[in-house]
Design a protein that fits this description.
Number of strands: 7
Structural class: alpha/beta
Bound molecules: zinc ion
Strand order of the largest sheet: 1-2-4-3-5-7-6
Radius of gyration: 20 Å
Shape: globular
Largest sheet: 7 strands, mixed
Length: 365
């Protein structure tokens, strides 16, 4: 399949391509239907396809659209892989079953939002909600600044944010905004106060497909941070030196950028909690888990945050004129997907390299 054809301009088209490819490849398919409909009235679902034996002891998970809108990228990688005979043969020869999870957050994918329909950032939502949740005090200071009453923001608002960044520094500003918060249900990067639909559904997926695995690898596909087209491989496990060493042994090298970690400050991501991969430790405790988030760059970070602020403002102002709605959705798409064949080729090339590395890694004692 050519790279261009693997990607789609709507969730409905992406879903159709994925289901078609998985069916043609004879994969085991299961769809978990979402309670709401999509932007065009289409069915929304977390679709899961297993390529290989359900009894395989080596399992490699490739997932997309944890942050809905980022699925325009991740789905393309999955569709390409499902058509990729050389890749499929390599996994089979290595005794590795591959589990594709298409659209962890289908609602956000369809509506070009980062969050779920509950306004939850799915990658901040995997907490033990019976325990006290982390408190993000710095977010309290920026919440009102980020989401002013009018959009586009006034010169006064822009000056206030610039002054805030000036005094706090860029890294602290990024952390305040993006590390997640559980206090403002209508705010940005809200981690929720209970498990979201996607959280509960992913756990079902792992309970169904993850129980035979003795070794489990995961590549979760994201966009929005770092230089355009460059895939940053971010360590996505508990802060455990053995897991980090394994992740680096598998995914460093081959000309790829080195695996980074937000535990030691080497990643472009802030230190986060409540991450999706926590579910693996809960639901597949029998497996040795090795995980990586592939984070592809798009735009400079302030442009990315500007798009998220605009989209969040729109969420709070559904009465906004149609032209403004369309402009903000275009801004979101541009912030999380680069619509050029050059970028798409960069995405697929790096994902594919990491996939072959995962099969080798799963076969390294
Ligand atoms: Zn993401």
């Amino acid at each position: 399949m050519n790279t261009h054809a693997a990607f789609s301009a709507s969730y409905a088209a992406a879903r159709a391509k994925f289901l078609e490819a998985a069916t043609a490849a004879g994969m085991t398919l299961r769809s978990y239907e979402h309670p709401l409909k999509g932007r065009d009235g289409e069915t929304l679902a977390m679709d899961v396809a297993l390529d290989g034996s359900p009894d395989a002891e080596k399992l490699f998970v490739i997932s997309s659209a944890c942050h809905g809108v980022e699925g325009y990228c991740g789905s393309g990688v999955q569709v390409y892989a499902a058509h990729d005979a050389e890749w499929r043969a390599q996994a089979r020869a290595g005794g590795v079953a591959v589990l594709y999870i298409h659209a962890l957050n289908p609602h956000g994918f369809s509506h070009a939002r980062r969050t779920t329909h509950e306004n939850v950032d799915l990658n901040r939502n995997f907490h033990d909600f019976s325990k006290p949740l982390p408190v993000n005090e710095p977010y309290r200071d920026v919440h009102a600044l980020l989401l002013p009453a009018q959009w586009p923001p006034t010169a006064e608002n822009q000056a206030a944010i610039a002054a805030h960044i000036e005094t706090q520094g860029m890294a602290r500003y990024q952390a305040a905004v993006s590390q997640g918060q559980h206090e403002f249900a209508d705010g940005m990067f809200f981690g929720g106060t209970e498990p979201s639909w996607s959280n509960r559904t992913l756990r079902q997926v792992l309970q169904t497909f993850g129980q035979s695995a003795r070794r489990l690898a995961w590549m979760d596909l994201h966009t929005g941070l770092g230089p355009s087209g460059v895939g940053e491989r971010i360590f996505a496990c508990k802060d455990d030196p053995q897991a980090l060493a394994r992740t680096r042994a598998w995914w460093d090298g081959g000309g790829a950028t080195p695996v980074t970690s937000f535990y030691d400050g080497s990643s472009s991501s802030a230190l986060l909690t409540g991450l999706l991969w926590s579910a693996v430790y809960d639901e597949c405790p029998q497996a040795e888990y090795t995980g990586m988030a592939m984070e592809y760059g798009t735009l400079p970070i302030l442009d990315m945050i500007a798009a998220l602020r605009a989209d969040h403002w729109l969420y709070k102002h559904p009465e906004a004129p149609a032209a403004q709605h369309a402009a903000i959705k275009r801004q979101m798409m541009n912030a999380f997907y680069v619509d050029t064949d050059e970028w798409r080729t960069q995405i697929v090339t790096q994902a594919r390299q990491a996939m072959f590395q995962a099969v080798d890694g799963l076969n390294t004692p």
